[in-house]
Specification:
By secondary structure, the chain is mostly beta strands. About 10% of the residues lie in helices and about 55% in strands. It is built from 5 helices and 19 strands. About 5% of the residues have low confidence. The protein has a 19-stranded mixed sheet that branches. The longest helix has 15 residues.
């Protein structure tokens, strides 16, 4: 590696070669076993990484194979990590176990196996074409998470591997959303019964390089109790220096009562507490976040409410409502600004302007 750290290592390996291809100047491995290998990728400030230093000089080799094929590379308990240019670890996956097939040095490549990430086991199937004339690769990958039944499929292209590597394509997903997850275990325990998972369809266009990723044409479509709902938006993530996440989400109508898993109207105090808990739980522990949320209409506490708009900021896990405006019963408009130190605490200003205070209190108390 560029910093003296090993780019790749394995505790042990076993290699079985096929003798016949050697006679025609080719190398063909029937099977390679790699036990506890580690692949460490490190980005640099110019948008490349330590993989760019990998090169083979033909003049330095006593034997130049006409082809190289790896029929089966069996990997057991591997680790892959990605660090930024300062050495800070951005991503780590471990428990990588599976089989890699390499038809030739220029592809195609296939992998099928499992890995651990974010506390959950993931199943991965990935395949590529051969390298194209410009050095790019077409690729398709599917990731399944057995614990949640979520599946993600990416179909796209990887380009400029020797320079500032770029990835672009389409992401689709079939997700299972648990309404009781909003607000955590305590809120889920308070309900009479645990609701079934709500299926959500995900679609998005993804463009990424070694410094940032951008998600456009984001769509989340779900239906609950025969009511279709759609959330659209975009997101941008950068990790050069401070991790920075910016998200915009919009919807014409969101049934918050249904979203929280209620059989009917959810009491407004409980709904606000669970939504605040959801915001604090989603805030990244490191870096900055800026989220813009907008809905033309909400259903909450059994009432149809006016438009809602919120700007939520976070910094190293601390969440701030920069601005929250919401239409409430009684011709009331609410505006909130302040910190959410915990899911049960708000430290800031609340301004209410309306025409019927009794109507508002009746709805809020759900009397």
């Amino acid at each position: 590696g560029q910093t003296g750290e090993p780019f790749f290592r394995a505790d042990d390996f076993t290699l079985w070669l096929s003798p016949a291809p050697l006679l025609r100047g080719a190398i063909e491995a029937r099977e390679i076993e790699l036990r506890r290998p580690t692949l460490k990728l490190r980005l640099n400030a110019e948008g490349g990484g330590n993989w760019q230093a990998l090169s083979i000089s033909r003049t330095a080799l006593p034997f130049i194979p006409s082809d190289v094929a790896l029929q089966s590379v069996v990997i057991t308990e591997g680790t892959v990590s990605i660090d930024d240019s300062t050495g800070r670890e951005l991503v780590r996956v471990d428990g990588v176990t599976g089989e890699l097939n390499v038809a030739a040095l220029d592809g195609p490549f296939k992998f099928k196996g499992v890995f651990n990430w974010a506390g959950a086991r993931h199943e991965l199937k990935a395949s590529t074409t051969t390298f194209e004339a410009d050095g790019g690769l077409r690729m398709k990958a599917q990731i399944s998470v057995p614990a949640t039944t979520n599946t993600y499929t990416f179909d796209g292209r990887l380009a400029d591997l020797s320079g500032r590597a770029r990835l672009e394509g389409q992401l689709t997903g079939q997700l299972g959303f648990m309404p009781s997850a909003i607000g955590g275990v305590a809120a889920a325990a308070a309900t009479d019964a645990t609701p079934a998972r709500v299926p959500i369809e995900l679609r998005a266009a993804v463009t990424a390089d070694t410094q940032a990723a951008q998600i456009t044409d984001l769509g989340l479509a779900f239906e609950q109790d025969g009511k279709p709902q759609l959330v659209a938006g975009s997101a941008k993530i950068s990790w050069q220096g401070t991790i920075d996440v910016q998200t915009e989400l919009t919807a014409r109508w969101i049934d918050v009562d249904q979203l929280l898993g209620g059989k009917g109207a959810v009491k407004p105090p409980e709904a606000f507490q669970r939504l605040a808990a959801g915001l604090t739980a989603l805030a990244p522990a490191r870096g900055r976040g800026l989220t813009s949320l907008k809905a033309d209409q909400l259903t909450l506490g059994g009432e149809s409410l006016g438009g809602a708009a919120a700007v939520v900021e976070s910094s190293d896990g601390v969440v701030r409502l920069s601005d929250l405006q919401l239409g409430l019963p009684g011709g009331t408009r609410a505006q909130l600004k302040g910190l959410l130190p915990t899911a049960d605490t708000f430290d800031g200003d609340i301004v209410l302007r309306g025409a019927n205070l009794a109507r508002l209190l009746t709805w809020f108390g759900h009397w």
